[in-house]
Design brief:
Blueprint: E1 4-15, E2 18-30, E3 35-38, H1 46-53, E4 61-66, E5 69-70, H2 76-86, E6 87-90, H3 102-112, H4 117-130, H5 146-158, E7 164-168, H6 176-192, E8 196-200, H7 204-208, E9 212-217, E10 220-223
Parallel strand pairs: 3-8, 3-9, 6-7, 7-8
Antiparallel strand pairs: 1-2, 1-4, 4-5, 9-10
Helix pairs in contact: 3-4, 3-5, 5-6
Bound molecules: adenosine-5'-diphosphate (ADP) and magnesium ion.
Amino acid sequence: MTALELQNVERVYRQGEAELVVLRNANLTVRPGEMVALVAPSGTGKSTLLHCAGLLEKPDGGEVLVGGMPTRTLSDKDRTRLRRTELGFVYQFHHLLPELTAVENVMMPQIIAGLDRATARARASEILGFIGLGPRLDHQPGELSGGEQQRVAIARAVVNAPRLLLADEPTGNLDPATSDHVFTMLMSIVKQSRLAGLVATHNLDLARRMDRRVTIRDGKIEEMD
Ligand code: ADP
Ligand code: MG
């Protein structure tokens, strides 16, 4: 069983006559419990790759399998359902809802999934406690530091126990010490829950702490080291 498979994925942006090939014959396998770093210069297609893996963009060719399930011919409704149940996302900016508290932000995806408020609150509090935010449950994002906000975003991404966590430069907006701390939390939560992770980062120190490193070259995914 694999968490994620990309098979000959192609993504081409067309603007008038011009064609920009971002991905072509891109192949990648991520297994359960594995953390893979995606390290490549700006503009090479990291976000495009994560959007395709996250079923947010449809590739122009090839197949994306999530948990072994092919997704190319799924309806929009089934893609959305798969995205909600199997995938978690973390972005460079936290995108927390500013009027909700930390615990309410982490309750939100669970309530959308149909859990009752008491269960959702208990699980949100447990995860936030696990990543050191027990004393910050009732703070709004504006009352939290950048690192704390990003940890809440990570808790929100994993609270429904997805199969795969996709993170797009999750510490790109943080200073080095905070970045290190947030990344350590991310690693421990991924390892503890046997999630798989695909993490785009410019930070080579963080990349080295993951299980594997890949890059994008001429539209293809290549192993590094
Ligand atoms: P990265 O995340 O590695 O910085 P992106 O995946 O965001 O790279 O972008 C890869 C390339 O595709 C860039 O040259 C970018 O300008 C281009 N691109 C991204 N999204 C679009 C789009 N919606 N339309 C046209 N070009 C795009
Ligand atoms: Mg990007």
